Structures are given as structure tokens and as C-alpha cells.
Batch of 2 targets.
Target 1
Amino acid sequence: MTQLIWNGIFIGAFYALVALGYSMVYGIIKLLNFAHGDIYMLGAFGGFAMLTAFGGSVAGGSIVALLIVLVLSMLGTGMFGVVLERVAYRPVRTAPRLNALITAVGASFTIEYGTSLVAGPNPEVYPVQLSGSALHVLDAHINIQQIVLVGIAVALMIAMNLWVLRTRSGRAMRAISQDPKACLYMGVNVDGVISWAFFIGSALAGAAGVMAGAYFGTVNFLMGFIIGLKAFTAAVIGGIGNIPGAVLGGILLGLLESFGTAWLGGQWRDVFTFVVLILLLTVRPTGLLGERVTERV
Amino acid sequence: MSPFPGVPTEQPPDSDPGAPQPPASAWVAGTETAVDRLRPKPAATGDNFLTKALQNRYLGWAALGIAIIAPFVDGSSFAIGVMTNALIFVMLAVGLNIVVGYCGLLDLGFAAFYAIGAYVSGSVAKLLEWPILATIPLVLAAAIVAGVVIGGPTLRLRSDYLAIVTLGFGEIIRITANNITVTSPTQMPIISGPSGIYGIPSLSFGGLDLGPVSNPLGSYFATLLIVAIGVLIASRLGRGKLGRAWRFIREDEDAAEAMGIHTYTVKLAAYIAGAMFGGVAGILWAAKQTAVSPTDFQFLYSALILMAVVLGGMGSIPGVILGAIVISALPDLLTGAGAWRYVIFGVLLIVVMIFRPQGLWPHRAVERVRRRLRSRSGPYDAEPPGSARPPVVAP
């Protein structure tokens, strides 16, 4: 039981990190960034490439080397997110919603198969494996590494929340999500703030990717697809556009999956998740913490 | 009959018969009215030869003619196989076009209906040893049920939610197919998990064998017949009352609702219609391949069908057919391009959306006015277009 809860929280931390970027972008420009899960995948591959390039120096699996790689990957995926927004999403921002969605699907496709071209279609094994001694807390096996990863995730979430609540660009971001046109009139650099949102969202997804790669050990070019779906589910559970909601949704989804796996068996886990998503959308489409949003005409 | 003798029928439709009218001649003297603007220009004003050719009403027959002649131009079994696949893909794209093109609902899990069609027809035909065409009613029923189950709760939602829910639904169907194993009472495996269904009977009609190997031409023409009927139905649907309601919802859902269209029912109708097309395409696929497995219904496939619709032109039947043929035939023709293919697809989606969102062969913005002589004379059609009924005066 405790084990199930801990597993759920651990997986949920990954979902929450990815869901944050989803939710933030959706909150600002009402775009479902389908490529967000693929940015997670890019982060995993970026970390993989760097660790492979450094070779033996990090063979010991030191957590410091991993942290450096994590930060570099975050910068890389963040920049990538900015470029993606500039190239693919900005031109269709004023177009009908359907066009923007299809553009996002195209972007997701391009990233996935572009990566498979560069890195090869087969799964790659991460050079650094995190395996360590386990603690026993109330019958649950908890790795030190798991605690470290959850700690990093929580630190990133707190940092992001501070950024949104306390900084000037964070305030601009919240204002844009309410009324982009009025912000433009007030002299807010709307494009710049949107770029920032993409940078931060993508960096968080990239961080989740590196951590997932280091923890689970393998990466492949389609790994972003399913987590993108689940992160969206998490964002919806919490109320899309709502930042604490995304974290709550991620953790809840992790717990749901953990218990769903225990009850129904691992092969039905994803089915369980999506059934929960559909049911939830039917009952409470605004999510747990979301307020009623009227679709703008 | 016109209430104003001497005033030609080009009177503006909003004119109030009770209000003082300007001299009749003012209307005659070359003033273009709203009704006129809707009519296609009689002479070649800006329409070049190609545009006129592309809007010809006999174009569909010409395309059918080409499809009939094609196997005699290159009758190799490879070519016929490619063409049969293209036809099935046309069926899928035309079905998705009802949902995405006509009604503007993004469906990212369309392969789920395809899978339902293939699985229902394949397993029933194998279990009960029916001819595969006899499973069509069952598949249609299953598609309707699936359409209602997934569309019912989600069509009230925001459009982006619908996209992701359909994506999740596609995954649910694929994973479920991957996980189920069914054996017949005689211990014959019917559905075997990741291996799917094999040994599905090919198309046959009466005593006529239309198998893709034994009789490729027969198989091709049988598929062509079914797909042609499907295209005809889709095209008629799009032009009818329901089709107009769909387009109205696509353009402005709130306005459509305000105009008295029951948007939820109409959207559900689009969803179910699309599901039925997907189901029939699944039958054709199962019959052609004689084996289906869950890997046939990955998200990739849903995305490719969407790609065909978007590339060709959402809402335009000829465009969608062109898009489907291009998308389905390209991989077979460009096997050398290999992994680049999907990258190119992705970039194409973005580029098309940015630079040509209406697609390669878009739907005409202006509808052709039906010729009066051919139209059935309803109570309003019998009057000339200008003579509006007296306006209802507010008390």
C-alpha cells in the first residue's frame, strides 16, 4: 500500500513536470502543444548524447555530473521550445484553432521522426544508471535516487511557481492569459513573454526527460507520445491553465495509475488512464481546480 | 409573381415591399445585388481553363473512369495492390473529412473506427464462417455504438479536448486489441493478442471469388464499387441540409446554435457518419490483407489519414481524394526515402497550415446556384427570387 502510494508520487512527479508546460502554454495562447511530449523525449536524448560524449568521466554515475547534464539539457530543450514556437506556432496564432492544432501535430511528427533519423529508430540504453541502496519506510522500498529525483522535480516546480507569481515576466504572462490584446495595448511584449513561457515549459519537460532516461535506463524516439498524452490528462485533471492544478493532477494521475496497475495488471494501465480522462471530462470538464472558461468566439 | 410590375427580379432580397422604392430603373442599371454576387460569373472573368475544368460537374465521373481504366494500363499485381490500398485510404479520408472537413471537429483517433471495422468483420467472418460482406451491417452497428460511446460524452466539450480524447480513444482501442485473446468453441484462435486476427476470408460475392491474390482485378473492382458508393454518399451528405449544418458549425458554432441548429446532435451525426466510413474501410482492409494486427492502427495511421484530409483540402471531396491517393501511394512509390518520409509528412503539415491552410484543392467558397428549371418547385421556389414574403411587422 505504501509502496503503491510512493510509486504513484514518483511517477506523478514526472507527469507534473511535463503537465506544467502543457498547462502554461495552454493557459496563455490556448494552444494544445502536441509536441510537448516530444520535447521531453528530446531532453532525454540530449542527456543521452552528452553523457555518451563525456564517456568514462561520469561512468561512476555521480549525481553532480547528472545535474550538470540536466541543466544543459534544460537549456537546450528550452531553446528548442522557443524556436518551435517562433517557426511553427507564431504564424498560425491568429488562424482558426483547428489549424493551430494540426500544426502542432505536424511539429510532433517532425520531432519524433527527425530524432529517429538522427539517433536511429532503436531504443538506446542510458550510459548512467541510477541504482542505489533502498530505504525501507513503512514497508515501501524507496531508493535514494528516487528521493533525489522527486526533490529536483519539486525544486523546479517551486522555482517555476515563484517565477510566475513574483517576477515581472511572470505577471505579464498571467495578464496575457486573461487578455492578450489589452496587454499589447499596455505595452507588454506579448511575443517575448510567450517565448519565455515556451522556454520554461520546454525546459521543465526536458528536465523530466533526462531524469526519466537516467532512472528507467532506456530512451526511444516515441517515448514522448504516451507521456504527452498523460501529461495532458494530468493537466486536465487539475484544470488546464492552472499551475498548481497541473502539479496536483500529475500526482493524482500517478497515484491512479499505480493503483490501476495493481488492480488490473500493467497491460491495462494506459486504458485505465484514458478511461479516467474521458469520465472526468464528462463529469467535470474544468478539472479539479479550474474555473469555468467560456470558449471565446 | 413580383409585387412590383416592372421591377426585375434582381431586387435586393431585403427590400421592404412597403417602403418607398427608388425608381425601378435604378435597379436595372447595372447594380450588382447580393443575389447576383452569389451567382458564378457567366463569362471567364478571372476563371482560367484549369479552374473551370476543376469545377466541372462531370469531374467525378471522369475520376471514376480513370479508376476503371487504371488496372488495364498497369495490370501488375503490385500496381493493383497499390491502387486497392489507395482506394481503401480514400474511403478513410472521405470518412474523416466528414468529421474534420465538414464539421471542424479534430479527430486524432480515427484509426480506432478502422480497427473496430476490421476486428468486428474479421472475427465474425472467421468465427461464424460468414462471407465478409455479410458483416457490413454488424460493423456499421458497432461503428455507431463506438461513435456514440466516444462522441456522446465528449462532443459537448471544447474542441481541443475532443482532439485529445479521440487520441486517447485510439490508444484505448489499440491497447485493448493488443490485450485480448479469443478462441472459438472449437479451440480455433480467433483474436490472438498482439498477432491480431489472421485467416480472414477475402471478399466474395455469391460464388464469385474476389480474393486479392486469386483474382486481383475482381478484388480491385469490388473495392472500387464500394468506395465509389461511399464517396457518392459523402458528397451528397455534404451538400444536403445536414452538410450545410455541419459547415455552419465549423464556421461558427455559437451562431449555428442561435440559428436553431441543434449543434450537439448534428455534431454527433457527423461523428457517427465518419465512424461508419471508417468501419467499412476496416472491412475492406481486413478482406484485402486477410490478417490484421494492432500495429496496423497506431497513432501514425490516424495522423496519416488526417494528413490526407488536410493536404487535399478540408471539406473538399475531390481534394480529399487527391490527398488520400498522394499519401497512400507515396510510401509505396518512394520506399527509398524510408525514414525521411514521416519527417517530410510532419513538415508538410506545418507548411500547409501556414502557407496554404485551405489545402491543395480547396472547397469552393461560392456555392453553385441550382438551376431553377431543374429544381423541384417548392412553395417558395415557385416565386421569383426577389419577391420576398411580406416582413413580419413587430407589434
Target 2
Amino acid sequence: MSAAAQASAEASESTGFPSAKLGMWWFLAPEIMVFGGLISAYLLFRMGSVGWAGELHHNSTLLGTVNTLVLLTSSAEYAAHIREGLVPAKSLFWAFYFGMTGLHGLHVLGGIVANACLYAVAARPGGVARYGHRAEMNGLYWHFVDVVWIFLFPLLYLG
Amino acid sequence: MKESGAHGSPYVLIWIYLVVLALASVAASLVLPKAPAELAIYFLALVKAVLVALYFMHLKVERFFIHSLSLIPLALVLVLFLGLIPDIVVGR
């Protein structure tokens, strides 16, 4: 393990935490606020609007459930909505729908790229020993994105 | 994080719980009347999120500082949410 990799994997004397872990949680804290703010705004407008449930019923619970199991099918659902004229400008619900699922999708894409990069470097000889500690950091990010979807799914498909 | 705690976590069992809870929330939305269904699905979502945070994000074995990095933003979001209710929900 290189000196830099070892330093980020071991607990810092000043903080008592591995620097990589501290950095990842420092990154996730504002991410919690980004998605928390977006979900709060959705809930507030939903609580203050009439007719919101009617918009919600355009979303297929079955397709949303499948998306929850296989997130990559979501592009097919986007295409179906757009064909029906259900675009962000149609109403506040669809603005939230595309905004929240789009932002979440970008985070999923970022996680896939990060995991692919980790796999590529860890697959090299000695890669696991050198880069293995990054798996936990990628895992923290990936599961944060998972937690966000846990809330988006009932908000956009079930509620 | 304590290594023994992370490696000893029942990840597969938690995953099974998550799948069962996800299916239960879908069933609740299809079977129950609207108000109890919403209560059930958001409660189940909260349980699922806590399970992922505790076991897959290792918060179960983390110390106070890491807990605070996740809880302080949540508290700020709650303040934002409650503070805007009078303007957006009541005032419309």
C-alpha cells in the first residue's frame, strides 16, 4: 500500500478516524441536505396542493417496483412519460418527478463509474491490498444513494 | 469503525428484510385505504432507511462524530420543512 493510501485507510491521530471515511461523511452531509431539501419541498407542495394524487397515478406502481429492483430500466419509463406529454413543464408534480429522479439517476451513474474504477484498479496484481479500503467509501456513497431511493419510491409511486 | 462489527453484520439477512419490507409497502399501497396506506408505506420506508444506515453504512458501529455528520443535516432539513409549512401548506 502506498503512503498516501495507507494514510487515508488508517485512523488519523488528530481526528481518530480514517481521513477517507471522514471525507466521505463530510461529502455525504451536504448531500443529505440536497436530497432532504428536495424531498421536503415535494412534501410541502404536495401537502399544500389539491389534485396531486391524480398526477401521481400516472406512475405505474409495477414499473416503479421493477425500477427499484433494476434501476437501469428507468430510461424506458422516462420515454413512456414523455410520449404521453408528461414533461416537467406540465405541472409541479412532473417538475419534481423529473428533477428528483434525474438527480438521483446522476448519483447512481456517479456510483457506477466510481465502482467500475475501483474494480479496475483492484483487479490489478496487488490492487486489493492497495485499494481495498476504498470499497467501504464507495459502499457508503452507494448506500446513501440507496437510502434516497427508499424515500423517492413511495413518494413518487406509492403515496 | 470496529472491524469485527462490520464483518459480523448479517448483510444477507438485512437484504432479505429490505426486500420483504419493499414488497410489504407495495402491498399496503394496493390493499389499504389511502390514509393508513400512506402511514404504512412511509413508516416502512423509514424502517428500511434506518436498516441501510445502521448495517450497510455501518452507523451501528460508528462513534458520535460520524453520527452527528448524518444527524445534523437531517435536523436542518426538519427545521426547513417545519419552518416552511406556514408559507406553503397553510398559506395556499
